[in-house]
């Protein structure tokens, strides 16, 4: 996996035009504020946006919180004074004002008002968290990826509600209506990747249903549940890959999009108004939420680890060198934003209701989003 990551980063340094690019003579997106960062490494974690309040980002030795309106630094939260956060996701607990994340082999929580470390749970608490696991809020607690072959349901005080042991590696936890969903994958002799979505009662830990596929594994992204439909996509060594919509109550298949196109795998899953968007290294695929039928595909010729975001009819994505603004219904490239001078590469995107945030190698930028631009 580390070798694949390095290859992708090397490829990402090449600047190429996307296949469905068009001439763009629009002015650049308006920059509302810019925060210069002191990243010690390329940040792995997208910024966490707390609507109307703050944006929290990583990449520096400390966790940082900025005022969402003007970029003023509000606080710095201690991680471990050695290394920037090692994680793929920050989780926000609105009721308790906490931001939570895995880091190396621990699971940590900070106060979102002060940056104070609330707890750090590790082996001495019978918890062995996976450094880059994708975690989730659950009812009165947290769903946490363990050392990949297990997962935990924790209470808000950090005590273990129950532990789930599995024979497949768990990459992410998601939650809806008293159910925990594990996204899982397993390589068989390096030639075939299998996948599972497993559902458990979030109070008791009882197994509810399992969805199984030979079309690669649910490895790079947690599932997303919306209106009792679970969406997930696969990645791996199998000849085919799929994006799947399941009934979250029963695990029954609503639709599957199955492909043998090597470029149509899932590193990220995004749900918009009418479409589910599956992001891969060089493609973005839009599938109808009701039927799974492919509506459009956007391509570029360099690889990326950036995860797309959706806001008010537009999808924002990047190949690390440019920021793409796509019409969410048609896939049309309506604007292409260049890297700011001295910014390095685009690494992460996030949105609030009225701002687009882009984290580069050395900056966090708040842009005015496309739908609010002045004509």
- Poorly predicted regions are 1-17, 21-25
What topology, given as strand order, has the largest sheet? 1-32-31-30
The best one-word shape is: globular
Helicity level, as a percent range? under 10%
Tell me the count of domains.
Answer: 3
What is the oligomeric state here? single chain
Mean pLDDT: 91
Main β-sheet description: 4 strands, antiparallel
Structural class: mainly beta
What do we call the CATH topology of the largest domain? Methylamine Dehydrogenase, Chain H
Query: How many β-strand stretches?
Result: 32
CATH fourth-tier homologous superfamily of the largest domain: YVTN repeat-like/Quinoprotein amine dehydrogenase
Radius of gyration: 20 Å
Strand content: over 45%
The CATH class of the largest domain is identified as Mainly Beta
Number of helices: 1
Account of the protein in words:
The chain is mainly β and 375 residues long. Helix content is 3%, strand content 47%. It folds into 3 domains: 1-36 and 267-375, Methylamine Dehydrogenase, Chain H, CATH 2.130.10.10; 53-125, Thrombin, subunit H (Beta Barrel), CATH 2.40.10; 133-262, Beta Barrel (Lipocalin), CATH 2.40.128. It contains 1 helix and 32 strands. A hairpin with a 3-residue loop joins β22 (268-271) and β23 (275-279). The longest helix is centred in the N-terminal third of the chain and has 11 residues, at 2-12. It is globular, with a radius of gyration of 20 Å. The N and C termini lie far apart (45 Å).
């Amino acid at each position: 996996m580390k070798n694949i990551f390095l290859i992708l980063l090397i490829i990402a340094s090449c600047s190429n035009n996307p296949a469905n690019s068009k001439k763009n003579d629009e002015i650049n997106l308006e920059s509302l504020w810019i925060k210069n960062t002191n990243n010690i490494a390329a940040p792995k974690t997208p910024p966490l946006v707390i609507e109307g309040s703050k944006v929290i980002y990583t990449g520096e030795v400390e966790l940082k919180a900025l005022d969402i309106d003007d970029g003023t630094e509000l606080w710095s939260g201690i991680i471990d004074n050695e290394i920037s956060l090692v994680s793929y996701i920050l989780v926000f607990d609105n009721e308790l004002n906490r931001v939570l994340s895995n880091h190396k082999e621990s699971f940590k929580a900070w106060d979102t008002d002060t940056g104070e470390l609330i707890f750090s749970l590790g082996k001495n608490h019978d918890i062995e968290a996976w450094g880059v696991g994708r975690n989730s809020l659950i009812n009165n607690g947290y769903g946490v990826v363990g050392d990949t072959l297990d997962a935990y349901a924790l209470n808000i005080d950090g005590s273990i509600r129950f532990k789930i042991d599995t024979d497949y590696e768990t990459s992410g936890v998601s939650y809806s209506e008293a159910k925990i969903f594990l996204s899982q994958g397993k390589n068989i002799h390096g030639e075939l990747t299998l996948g599972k979505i497993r559902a458990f009662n979030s109070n008791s830990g009882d197994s509810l249903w399992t969805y199984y596929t030979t079309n690669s594994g649910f490895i790079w992204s947690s599932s997303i549940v919306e209106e009792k439909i679970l969406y997930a996509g696969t990645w791996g060594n199998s000849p085919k890959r799929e994006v799947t919509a399941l009934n979250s109550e029963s695990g029954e298949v609503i639709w599957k999009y199955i492909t043998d196109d090597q470029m149509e795998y899932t590193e990220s899953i995004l749900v918009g108004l009418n479409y589910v968007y599956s992001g891969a290294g060089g493609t973005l695929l839009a599938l109808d939420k009701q039927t799974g039928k492919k509506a459009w595909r956007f391509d570029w010729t360099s690889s990326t680890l950036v995860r797309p975001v959706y806001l008010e009819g537009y999808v924002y994505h990047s190949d690390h060198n440019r920021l793409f603004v796509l019409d969410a219904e048609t896939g049309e490239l309506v604007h292409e934003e260049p890297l700011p001078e001295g910014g390095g590469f685009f690494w992460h995107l996030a949105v609030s209701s009225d701002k687009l945030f882009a984290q580069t190698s050395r900056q966090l930028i708040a842009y005015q989003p496309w739908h609010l631009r002045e004509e």
